[in-house]
């Protein structure tokens, strides 16, 4: 839930007749850990639960949400920052019923916007809060003022990491900075690309123990996502989201479990289309049998 000063506002402090979106900021200490793919699929899963969902590509300067979803917008976040477009005017439709605010890529000055510009951007984004149930913010990798700002306005901050030692070290580093700046008190980790559930549990145990020992912070976990390089590569190349096209794969089922944890819902059994058709055929056959009797 947004506040213009970057502080966290709870539901009791909000106006009773005004709906406020749940803001989820996704960050990572290191690039290449699957953060953007996670953000896109998280948003689509949110929409599938009946929540009106918006994705903000806040990787300012190296945006790629629109590329991974196969969308090439005429306007983007740079137009909003430069006051050429309103934030409502740059919103576009994405896969699975989500809406997207595309970022800009290859623009150095956008990745280093001033404190005033960041503050103005957050104010503009807060105008959309009443129109959505969930807003997913996909940040750039690493620690920057931009990242910390978007984390500070989130109801939930999710740090995506992998078992890789450098990724794990960088994930701890960003958590340390968040805690030292008191940017957010609701931080959870998701471990991507694990070979097994045991590895996922072990990686989380390592980083959570470090957070407890050195930061005196109880780091939560939303779970792990299994390694499935072939499926992920195909999903990216075809621009077909995992939660839509590849639900029955290792990465799809484990990703689904993580998302259910994020939204605190019970996982639903995935039914193959041919099973649905078979059940429908059996129903028709039963009806015909009864009619002929």
Task: Please give a structural write-up.
43% of the residues lie in helices and 15% in strands. By secondary structure, it is an alpha/beta fold. The chain has one domain (11-292): P-loop containing nucleotide triphosphate hydrolases (Rossmann fold, 3-Layer(aba) Sandwich). Strands 3-4-2-5-1-6-7-8 form an eight-stranded mixed sheet, with helices on both faces. Helix 1 packs across helix 10 (250-263), helix 4 (115-126) packs parallel to helix 5 (145-152) and helix 6 (165-180) packs parallel to helix 7. The longest helix is centred in the last third of the chain and has 20 residues, at 273-292. The protein starts with 21 loop residues before the first strand and ends with a helix.
Determine the CATH topology. Answer: Rossmann fold
Helix count?
Answer: 11
Rough shape? globular
Please state the second-level CATH architecture: 3-Layer(aba) Sandwich
Give the neighbour order of strands across the main sheet. 3-4-2-5-1-6-7-8
Which helices and strands, and how do they pair?
Blueprint: E1 22-27, H1 35-48, E2 53-58, H2 65-68, H3 77-81, E3 92-93, E4 99-101, H4 115-126, E5 134-139, H5 145-152, E6 156-161, H6 165-180, E7 187-194, H7 197-215, E8 220-226, H8 229-238, H9 242-245, H10 250-263, H11 273-292
Parallel strand pairs: 1-5, 1-6, 2-4, 2-5, 6-7, 7-8
Antiparallel strand pairs: 3-4
Helix pairs in contact: 1-10, 4-5, 6-7
